[in-house]
Amino acid sequence: MKLMLVAYALSLMFVLLMVVRVWRASALDGVLTLLVPFYFIIAMIKYWNEPDHNIRFHVLGLVICSGIAYYAATNFARDVIVGTPEQRTAMVKAFRDEGVALTPEQEKGLLSEDPDVVMATLQSLDMESADGDGNADGAVATRPRDAEFENPAPVPAQERPAEVLSYAEAARRAVFNRGRYTREAIGITIDIPAKFRLISATDARRLDQARGRNDDARGLGWIIHENLALTDPDAWHVGVRWHSDGWVAAAALDPVGLLDSALANKAPAPRVVVSQGDLIGYAVAPQFDGQVIDWAEERVLTNSDEQVVDCHAVRLGRRGVVEFSIIGMAPKSAALCHATVRLLATRASFSPGKQYEPAAPAEGLRAPYTIATLATHAF
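The chain above was modelled as a monomer; its predicted structure follows.
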């Protein structure tokens, strides 16, 4: 920063000295040298052989100082972009929260002390994002897409809504989307059923804020049936969430053993979203078909005798899982609740190279849980 300021100051000094020397020979040339870009070249040639008015050494000094100032400014800007180690760590966390699947090499590059390495890694991530809608030769890939659907890009943290609206106003501002929902960075596509609509994570966040709920950093959006009014705070919806925890190991699912484990877990730290209350049993025991694990929990709400059902279906991928959850449904609607999340999970798919495989990948993150512990919240 100091080098940049000194270089700019010296450049200004050389410009003023040039103007003074040229002014002594011709007031017009002096004014033009001051106001017209690159006119000093004409003045330098015109007075090249006049000892009292030549400016060739001043031009040389200006070029050198300008080059130093440009170099210092470039490095200063680069250092600002790269940031401190704490900022780089926060940047990696932000990437993961937004669903960007970082390879170990990319994560190492982002945390590097070398600004060139950090910037090269950022550029590679930008290129991967840009290539998501095209082929290697730049041609646009063709794929089916509902014309009514606008695939939302991840919302940067600074663009997240700061104002807290009333629930009615937040619902009024929400935009419904239909058709095919795609998040290129995650590599996930969800074919939204004909009778359902999706609102973005931004709109869902506003609705949660209006109800005094905490911000869900994993949220991708809500899916709601068209016969339900979003303006009704009690209308059920399917929350869609992304867990960038890595590859999840499969495990044997013994319903009785899983229930015993879940009931014994008195201090749960659930990955999936759940109602505030105690687990009393499974309305539908966990089942796994090789790609999707789904189950429904019966819970009794805290400080109440009211019983509710929470339904979950999780689609597994190579670098994380996508969760579909409905919480707080009436027990009489357990079948509808479970069928809905199961349907949405089966309509989700990962792009090539990001699908789930039973065998552990040679590299990449591995989740600190299995599908069994995911269903019992035993972490």
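The chain has a mean pLDDT of 79.
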